[in-house]
Amino acid sequence: MEAQAQGLLETEPLQGRDEDTVASADFSSMLSEEEREELKAELVQLEDEITTLRQVLSAKERHLVEIKQKLGMNLMNELKQNFSRSWHDMQTSTAYKKTHETLSHAGQKATAAFSNVGTAISKKFGDM
């Protein structure tokens, strides 16, 4: 019996299965007419508040766009800035520096090897 009572006192959030159980339960028969009216009024109030918040958010988004336009900021400029910042961040990373050094060293060795091959070929043609 105590375990059942403990279950009613849990403070943990509902989990998926619990949410499904609560969602499918019909509590309307347990409410008095006064409670039902209070809940309906609260529901209307919440819906009104949500509508107001959406309108405020929409107005703020429009204002944001206007400010960006006045400052000459557009999508292309923002993309350029983001790309430049990302490119700079990548170039300053340790991995990029090590890779750059390794490839640079490999390129120098390849250039030297091609030069040696070219010299050898020239020598062969000169001997003919």
From TrEMBL:
Keywords: Coiled coil. Residues 1-34 are annotated as: Disordered. GO terms for cellular component: cytoplasm. One of its GO terms (biological process) is positive regulation of apoptotic signaling pathway. The keyword Iron-sulfur does not apply. Belongs to the TPD52 family. This is Tumor protein D52-like 1. It comes from Neovison vison. The lineage of its organism: Eukaryota, Metazoa, Chordata, Craniata, Vertebrata. The gene is E9PNK6.
